[in-house]
Amino acid sequence: MSRKFALAGAVALALAVTPIAAGTASAAPASTQQEAAVTTVYYSTASAPSFRSVINAGAANWNNSVTNVRLVERNSGASLRYTEGNDPRGSYASTNGHGSGTIFIDYTQARQYNPTRIAAHETGHALGLPDHYSGPCSELMSGGGPGPSCTNAVPNAAERSRVNSLWANGLVATNQQRAVETIYGF
Ligand SMILES: [Zn+2]
């Protein structure tokens, strides 16, 4: 039962987050100072109607966990699309790691594993996190690694911190990652 798969040609996302030194914006108008800007990622559940509630639950778990990016459901013009169906490879995310791409939820896998964990895990990829199958159940990105009995759908402290760092400067990160599309399993 190989539910996980590593992508051929997976490209490591090398993201250089440029810290903004405190005080460097002292001469700038208030609107451009280094207050952390929240980036909104719009996602569509229109093509995954069976899983709308678990997708929204997974997104809510992320919204309750991080501050620099916010997931908002909007079926028109969304950069992140959820789909559903049958695929022997299981669920996956095809994403640039910065809020764009497609997340597929597999029916068979969603019956075997906690579907909210699947949705939240795949969403974690869209927010920039890689797989870490050897991790414990408390780690969302361990995916199917801990087995079907693991129902945790909430990122741990390290995962929250990592996502906040990746989105600390949303616009710069978007420009750096836009061209890189990688597929991750569950
Ligand atoms: Zn994964």
From TrEMBL:
This protein's UniProt keywords: Calcium, Hydrolase, Metal-binding, Metalloprotease, Protease, Signal, Zinc
- Catalytic residues as annotated in Swiss-Prot or TrEMBL: E122
Q: Which GO terms describe its molecular function?
A: metalloendopeptidase activity; zinc ion binding
Q: Which GO terms describe its biological process?
A: proteolysis
Concerning SUPFAM superfamilies, the annotation shows: Metalloproteases ('zincins'), catalytic domain
Catalytic activity annotation:
Hydrolyzes proteins with a preference for Tyr or Phe in the P1' position. Has no action on amino-acid p-nitroanilides
Q: List the disulfide bonds.
A: C137-C150
Q: What is its EC number?
A: 3.4.24.77
Which residues are the signal sequence here?
1-27
Cofactor descriptive note: Binds 1 Ca(2+) ion per subunit. Binds 1 zinc ion per subunit.
**Which residues bind Ca(2+) per the record?**
T116
Its required cofactor(s), as named, are: Ca(2+); Zn(2+)
Any single Gene Ontology cellular-component annotation? extracellular region
Q: Where does Zn(2+) bind?
A: H121, H125, D131
Q: Which Gene3D superfamilies match?
A: Collagenase (Catalytic Domain)
The family annotation for this protein states: Belongs to the peptidase M7 family.
Stated name of the protein: Extracellular small neutral protease
Which organism encodes this protein?
A: Amycolatopsis pretoriensis
Q: What is the lineage of its organism?
A: Bacteria, Bacillati, Actinomycetota, Actinomycetes, Pseudonocardiales
